[in-house]
Here is the input.
Amino acid sequence: MLLPPGKNFNFHIHFNNADERDTNQYRLTVSNISKKTTTVGGRCTIKLCPDSKWAVICVHLADVIKTIWNIDAHYISGIQLCGYAHYRGVYTSDV
Here is the structure.
């Protein structure tokens, strides 16, 4: 990701619990817009302020989800890229 100086960005990772009894949808947002990291219900925003250089952003989603929502198994239902950042690619892995 490349963020031009003075610009805002955010990206959202939408996911669901693999347990079919839990029908809630969850969203993890990574952003430089929010003032602090917050969690409200099924939504969590993580503050990140990268330099104005190309950066690789890695999110170990299994650990984040386990820590915040205590969910063991999940599946990603969508990724949404927003703001003025430039992205070269998005990669996922279950390894």
About this structure: The CA atoms of residues 39 and 45 lie 6 Å apart. The two ends are 23 Å apart (CA to CA). Helices lie at 61-69.
